[in-house]
Amino acid sequence: MRVSYQHTNIRSGNESTLLRFTAADGTRACVLVDAGGAVDLDSALGDDEYLNAILLTHAHIDHYRSLARNVRHNAPIYTSPATATLLEQTLPEAQKDNDLGEISEAMDALEPIDDWTAVLANLDVRPVSAGHTPGAAGFIIRFRDRTTTDELLNGEQHILATGDFTTRPCAGFPELQTTYPFDIDAVLLNASTEDTYRTALNESLQTVLERAYAGSQVVIATSSLTGLHYAILLGHTAAALDRELPITMVGQAAKLYNALELDDPGIETREVFERTATVLEQGRVTIAGPETPQKGSAARLLNAVKDDPTGVFVQLATGDAAPVTNVSCTTRYIELRNHPSIETIDRVVRELAPKQVVIKHAVGDTLKQFQRRFDHCFTWGTNDEEIHRLYEAGEWQAPEWIAETAATQIRTRQWERAQNQPFDPDGMRSPVRRDAVDLEAEGVDLDALETTFGRPSTDPYSASASDGDGTAVDVEEDRPQRGEDDSIEAELLARLEAIETKLDRSEETVRARVLSDGNGEQFLHLLEQADIEAGDTVEIIVSGTDSEETKR
Question: Which residues form the Metallo-beta-lactamase domain (predicted)?
Fold first, then answer.
């Protein structure tokens, strides 16, 4: 068996790879991993070559932009079941603003798989969870070589194509695992990195929860898959804090959530809405797209809150969106890209201990840096679209630019690593399916959020409220008990009378929370009922001690 790889879009993202598997009898299989921008199989495939399969790792457009244009030879498009469901929604939507080719052909070729699936007699593929985004998968590619001397696994060799990955779960979908019941001999390693994800995630949660619990209308603009991920984390965070938080997903994000048939705390969906008022509310978080609010639901919602000084507009940017400016509402721009840190990539390679690493989703200097990063495996950081041979005649090949003495040293380190490699015969995780959401594993600093938001503010409509000096006032005791013949109207009047009596006391105070838009403007959010209307002008007397202030 001979195995080679070829970059197919080195200048347009470099996430796409054509793998060739050639048996001793000349039988050849061609497998494309992802179909990003500028992939052209008409140029890459020889006259006597046929495409046998496309492996699509996840439903981000930079990985499927050329998918429809490269479907041919009745080749299936293998994906995880969740990604196949998402693509049925994202392909038609993305086609509105992008030339994706005949997407109906791609949709017809979609074939979700969750176990080993044969491409040829001696070639199989299987998806494995990869974190990063809901439904994302890497792929294990298993081939058998009769010329190998490896009798233990009957000549089986394994390649892992990571796709974009994290070692954190994502919205309940598991992370990329690094222990398998067999050796990973080669890795197609997507090397996109991000060191600030956890910090950005918790900064955004702090902002959103603070303003929503203070009664602001909060709008989040982001990409549909990030909106899906973020809504799930936000809903489960509020549930863990034992605080109610209404969340509405609108537009494409709502369609994706409904397509996956998810059910998470506090989340409701509105795929289509006629008036923005139906999806906006004080204390509600509304999630829409795209992250650049120049069109779509995000543009409509920004227009609805931009003149509200207590409103909040948050952009969770995954691309190069421009920050919103020149509006009266509070704005926040937070880059939220869910990729691993460089230290995590080092750990993944160390734990997998492959013989070969092919660097993907990187170009130029980054490729060169990775060529020198790992000293225990052969690292291919090629900046071209040539065909490079990885495996032949039962052996994994060294790159031609590595001297024989250096290659011998690397093979020695490989052997040493293999002796300490964990081996778990039952270590193959279940297919790419959603588990329970583990907030801390996903990067949420729940302890910090509980310190800030763990105790709910007083509910002015509860049976027990606090008067101005901190003494509990039981509204239930102040109102007459309703008999069988009392009307609902009488009960409501009694409740109002009790509240008015409480507010009319000469020393009564109404508690409020001070809000800031971050630009020097301050606002008061009343925490108790008061006989005032929106737009009223009132006088505020601030008094208190060294430890606290009371707003009256």
Answer: 13-216
Summarize pLDDT for 278-296 with one digit per residue, the tens: 999 999 999 999 999 999 9
Strands 267-270 and 247-250, bridge-based pairing: parallel
Residues 6+ apart with CB under 8 A from 247: 231, 234, 235, 238, 266, 267, 268, 284, 285, 286, 287
Q: What is the mean pLDDT of the chain?
A: 87
- Render pLDDT for 435-488 as a digit per residue (tens, 0 to 9): 999 999 999 999 999 999 986 544 444 444 444 444 444 434 444 444 444 555
Contact of 34 with 15, CB cutoff 8 Å: yes
Largest pairwise CA distance in the chain: 98
Give all domains of the chain, ordered by start, each with its CATH number: 2-194+340-402 (3.60.15.10), 196-335 (3.40.50.10890)
147 and 156 in contact (C-beta within 8 Å)?
no
- CA dist 3 and 29 (Å) reads 10
Count the residues in the chain: 552
DSSP code at position 481: P
Please state, in angstroms and rounded to a whole number, the distance separating the CA atoms of residues 156 and 3.
Answer: 13
Burial class (CB in 10 A: 0-12, 13-18, 19+), 223: buried
DSSP string across 251-302: HHHHHHHHHTT---TTEEEES--S-GGGT--TT-EEEES-SSTTSHHHHHHH
pLDDT digits (tens, 9 = 90+) for 444-459: 999 999 999 986 544 4
Measure the N-to-C terminal CA separation of the chain; round to a whole number of Å. 82
Contact criterion met (CB below 8 Å) for 80 and 254: no
Q: Which residues contact 126 (CB under 8 A, 6 or more apart)?
A: 113, 115, 116, 117, 139, 140, 142
pTM for this predicted structure? 0.83
Q: What angle do CA 147, 148, 151 make, to 5 degrees?
A: 120
DSSP string, 16-50: -EEEEEE-TTS-EEEEEE---TT--HHHHS-TT--
Residues 6+ apart with CB under 8 A from 64: 34, 35, 36, 56, 87, 91, 100, 106
Q: Of 149, 174, 5, which is closest to residue 82 (Cα–Cα)?
A: 174
